[in-house]
Amino acid sequence: MPLVQCPICDKSISKRAHTCPNCGEPDPFNSRVKSKVLTTILWIAAIVGGVYLFWVYGLPMLIDLAHKL
Ligand SMILES: [Zn+2]
User: Fold this and answer.
1) Which comes out higher in pLDDT, residue 41 or 7?
2) Residue 15 C-alpha to ligand 1 middle, in angstroms?
3) How far is the CA of 1 from the centre of ligand 1 (A)?
4) What Cα–Cα distance (Å) separates residue 55 from each residue in 5, 8, 22, 37, 64?
5) Which helix (H) or strand (E) holds 36?
6) Are 15 and 3 in contact (CB under 8 A)?
7) CB of 10 closer than 8 Å to CB of 4
8) Which contiguous run of DSSP H or E holds residue 45?
């Protein structure tokens, strides 16, 4: 496990620690907030990417199909 410095007491703690064992700071790196933000960003990227791919590849395909019918 990678060790990093606690921003509050500067002691080495695990990066995954949800509470600093030295000073008791809860959630010293806001890991839960960060992962939530990251998940939201990934979702937005996935949705935007999906819409873009549909617009570039899906729509012409649908138009082609409509013309063939
Ligand atoms: Zn600490």
Assistant:
1) 41
2) 12
3) 17
4) 46, 48, 53, 27, 14
5) helix 31-53
6) yes
7) no
8) helix 31-53
d(CA 56, CA 63): 12
pLDDT of 12 = 92
pLDDT tens digits, residue range 16-60? 888 899 999 888 777 667 778 899 999 999 999 999 999 999 999
pLDDT value of position 16: 82
How far apart CA 26 and CA 3 sit, in angstroms, is 17
List the shell of residues around ion ligand 1, using CB closer than 5 Å. Answer: 6, 8-9, 20, 22-23, 25
Residue 31 has a pLDDT of 63
